[in-house]
Every structure is written in C-alpha cells, then in structure tokens.
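FORM 7B: Structural annotation worksheet

SECTION A. Query
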Amino acid sequence: MKTIKTDVLIIGGGLTGLTLAYLLKSINIKVKVLEANSTIGGRINTKHNTNQAPIELGATWLIDQQFNALALLKELGISVFKQHYGNTAIYHPNKTQAVQLVELPENNLVSYRVTNGTYSIIKSLSERLSENTITCNQKILTIKLLADDLEASSNDTTYYCKHIVSTLPPLLFSKKIAIEPALPQDFQELLLKTHTWMHNSIRIGFTYKTPFWKSKDTSGTIYSSVGVIQEFYDHSNANSNLYALSGFMSSAFSKNKKEERKKLALKQLQSYYGDQALTFESYEECVWANEKYTTSTSDRFIIPQSNNGHPLFQNTYLDNKLFIAGAETSPVFPGKMEGAITSAQFVFEKLKAIYHN
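SECTION B. Predicted structure
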C-alpha cells in the first residue's frame, strides 16, 4: 500500500470536487482529488463525435437565476447559448388520444446550454489544477478519525489528511464507505433517505445531417406519456450547423439492451417524423442506474428530491474534519449544476476560515 499525505482530500472528481479543488488552489491549500471511475466528470457526460453535434447525457441546462454557475463559467471563459424549444411541441398525452402538435405557452425563463458541451467545464477546471492533483481509479473504502488527522484507505493507497470532503451522492457515500467512529445516527438515517439526482435516468440522443424537426408543421420538442421517449429537445450545436435530438427515455427500459432501446426510440421518432428519423448518424445513451460510482440501490423508495439541501449537510463531522458536499447537499438548486458549485463554494469558505484564520 502506498502512503500519501495532503491537507484536503476530496472524494469525487465531478463538478463539486473539481470546483472546490480549483478554489482551494487559489489560496495555496494542498489538495488531492480522488475519482473511482477511470475518467472524471461525475454526472456531466458529453459525447463528442467528429463533425457531429455534442450530445449531453448528463447535466445540461442552466438558467439566469443560477448565478454562481454562470459566474464560474464566465471566469473560466466558457460561453453559453439559448436552448431552442420553438413555438410548438409534439404532445402525446395517453394511448386513447392521438399525437398532437400543440402551441407552447410563452415562457420568460430562458434555458442555456454550454457552447462546446458541458464537459468543457470539467476539462477547464481540471486543466487549472496542479499536476497530479487528480487520481482516477481510486475507490475509497474506509475513513478513520485519528488523534490529529484522518486516514482514508483506497484499493491500493492510504491517505493521511487534515480534512476530507466527500462529494459523492449521500446514499452512495453511506453504502460504500465505512466510517470510524460511526457518524451520528440521525445523520446516517438522512444519508439513506436522500434522493440521488439522475439515479434512474436514461439519457439518449441522435445526431443528424439535417434538422427536419425545424419544419413549420412539426417540432423538435416532444412530450409523451406513451412512448419510450418521455421528453426530447433540439440538441443542435451553438452555431446551428450540426444537428441532434436528445432527451429522456423512460427508466422502465434500463434492463433492456442498448440496441433494443435504440430501436424503440427510433420507432417512436419515426411515428412523429416519418422515415427521415431513421437517417441518423450516431446514437448515444447513458443508463445512469448502471453507473456504480454514481448511484446505489436503496432498500426503500425515496421520493424524488427528498432531503436534498437538508440542514444537517451543512454541518461537519469526525471532529469537524469531514465535510459532506455535492449537488444533493446544497439548499440552493439542489441536484443542479448550480447546487454542485454552490456546495463547493460553501465548503471552500469553511476551509478558508480554518487554514487562514
């Protein structure tokens, strides 16, 4: 077993973990980011194919009210563009009613997408960190409180640090990492009852050479309570010269094979657009229930958004050395990119007060 020492150990190389590492670097705090997967990004997952529109399979949209996220993007030199919804939507309410083309109500709330794909945020943050800050394929198994510091053990390394910040979804943290001494009982219960965003979502997308859904008698916005596709949107790039449709498939199809999901989605799109829907260039998907370092099976049903932003997540544990951060823990836009970034900023301020008191 290797031994590594650092000031702050961050578990999870997603948006919260990388934002926090970026902020800590600015005040010269020694930090290490550990990621269990072979790549960083967490629930940000953008698929890039040559000469095709980027397809978002994870976190995608921002709105004007998400001030911290937009400010961070501006600081990183990353631009956004407006999501195109159009004036109409394809709507299929139930099996007894035919598909309709309905007018969308006027909406003053603008949604934005990241110009070169959401993963550009992850890439930009990681490039601003010192060399060797991030280590992938590191699955933390145990955290122990020692006399003066914390010990965290992975599959092949023991880490000693002054503080640990877990950015894992609370349920995953509870299920996968053994803590010594045990965390307070009420907090253990909270971890088990906290909803994980994206945990059973299926994101899919098709790229095309032409945006046939932009014709006046149809739409790229789809809402269906009948087919495998539940929500679909125009996913063309910022320059509107590379075209795609992308959205959400019903979680009921998570056990199907990829090819089956693709065929079912194409059949539904064909029923709306005709055979031109079959002329796709590429198909991308992410079944989030299969991402073992993002979600964990719960022993109980958890109502969506349950306990997100709970006050107990703002406390510190293990003699004020352990922080629980991440999108679910933020009282501001929990589960969203704004929540992830706000959570990182909250922990940063606490650590800054400790190290620069």
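SECTION C. Observations
Residues 82 and 112 are 4 Å apart (CA to CA). The radius of gyration is 22 Å.

SECTION D. Sign-off
Analyst initials: ____
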